[in-house]
Amino acid sequence: MDKKNYNYDVAIIGAGPGGFSAAIEAARKGLRVAVFEKEQPGGLCVNWGCIPTKTLLHVSNLLQTCQKMDNWGLSFEKRYIHFNKINNNINRIIEKYRSGIKFLFNKYDIMLYSSECYLIDNCQIKLDTPNKTITSKYIVIASGTVPLMPDIPGVNANFIYNSKQLLMNIHDIPNRIIIIGGGIEGVEFATIFNNFGSQVTLLEKKERLLDFLDDDISKLLYNELIKKGIRVYTGVYIKRFRDNSVDFYSGDSFLSLDCDIVMLATGRRGNLSSIKNISINQKDSFISVNHFMETSEKNIYAIGDITGKMQFAHVAMYEAQKAVMRITGKQFDNHRIYPVCLYTKPEVAFIGYTEKELAEKGYSFSTILYSMDNNLMSLLSKNSKGIIKIIYDKKSNMVLGAYIVCDKASEMISEFSVYIHNGLSLYDIDRIIRPHPTFSESIGEAVKTFFSE
Ligand SMILES: Cc1cc2nc3c(=O)[nH]c(=O)nc-3n(C[C@H](O)[C@H](O)[C@H](O)COP(=O)(O)OP(=O)(O)OC[C@H]3O[C@@H](n4cnc5c(N)ncnc54)[C@H](O)[C@@H]3O)c2cc1C
């Protein structure tokens, strides 16, 4: 088919962070763009992920802060949690994001089809509403993921929710919640409900929580969760769910715990519904792509969570840019250094290589470990432990990776993105002047310890 005979230059399946970013980027480059979305613009991130959970974390952290104000001489005698007001605020913020996306789609003449769709071949897309077929020269699949249901007896019981179901149905704080899965989603929800005063139990089948982090960091976070009163069991095998309880083995012990609700945070699989009729290379329910985000069909790209790599909104947005640059024949740096943030209390942020990865590669590296105990902002916020860990090349002193654990870690980690992307060394970092008092001045203090060794 000749280019001018296509309805669009780029058709994008999904209007999550990957899809809407690709659409805006492509339209800004002068391409004719259509987006297909079967639910709401914004995808998982805006509607059921980043935005509602970070709003809940914000509100529940405020509550925690108020409760700890006594020793500053501030008392809040009565505690009310009006969950319908919280929900209203969450919905207001979500709506603001959705209309922002629609505004940009209008501004850039991007056609939004509010419909489920699927590919008939590598350039034809079939829609449900309206019932028609559309053609496009390039296709970008940004269809995200769906929750993985563990194969456990009783898993369909009515007291068991995944995070989306929980966010849709929660009107009150549960007294007792059991969260299955000690990954990022699990520990963030554990933090939210613990802040709100629920009795929280976290069950993880691996021997430690968040095992993609270095040992010392996941242990530190584990200790902080325990200190806050969250019950954590690792090495867990769940036997069944029944009558508002969970039967499980933790090591050799058998336990049965009662609860009001269970939340499943047991991972996600790729949403492949749009490619059921065509053959594109896949791996474990995710679409395989090369460095340019191209699939095995040359004119079809896949970006974001559907590629099964790092399931973060900022990664999806970056991959959107990469795909559009490829489509428009432009060069683009192929960075693979993404920050990872856990919005727990304290926050944990990480970028670059872990010690474990470097050790496995036989790399010669060393670390700086700095405690933020004497940092004024840490002292003022009266929060749990703060540390900075910098992993650097032993010969060149270039930064290879970094962890930050403290309030605002998710903001501070971008400093290390700049260092790593630009190949900067500890000497370069030492020359940077940061304002006082701030959390981030600890980065400078941490580096100073290297020069005093
Ligand atoms: C509880 C939770 C909290 C999270 N918090 C964070 C966070 O704080 N920070 C962060 O970076 N990431 C967070 N994430 C992850 C983040 O939400 C995802 O990485 C991000 O949304 C992925 O974007 P995407 O565009 O690849 O896919 P999605 O956002 O999943 O969007 C895919 C879209 O495609 C649509 N779609 C699928 N199939 C079709 C079809 N056949 N036809 C039409 N439309 C279709 C879907 O309806 C959906 O809207 C969180 C996730 C969860 C579950």
What does this structure look like?
The structure is a single chain. This protein has 453 residues and is of the alpha/beta class. The chain has helices at residues 17-28, 43-48, 50-67, 83-107, 163-169, 184-196, 215-227, 313-327, 355-361, 376-381, 409-421, 426-430, 441-451; strands at residues 8-13, 33-36, 111-113, 117-119, 124-127, 133-141, 145-147, 160-162, 176-180, 199-203, 231-233, 236-242, 245-250, 253-258, 261-264, 268-270, 282-283, 286-287, 300-302, 340-342, 348-352, 365-371, 387-393, 399-405. Strands 1, 2, 3, 4, 5, 6 and 19 form a seven-stranded mixed sheet that branches. Strands 8-15-9-10-11 form a five-stranded parallel sheet. Strands 20-21-24-23-22 form a five-stranded antiparallel sheet, sandwiched between helices. A hairpin with a 5-residue loop joins strand 20 (340-342) and strand 21 (348-352). Helix 3 (50-67) runs antiparallel to helix 4 (83-107) and helix 3 (50-67) runs parallel beside helix 6 (184-196). Bound molecules: flavin-adenine dinucleotide (FAD).
In short:
The chain is α/β, with parallel strands linked by helices and 453 residues long. Helix content is 33%, strand content 24%. Helix 3 (50-67) runs antiparallel to helix 4 (83-107).
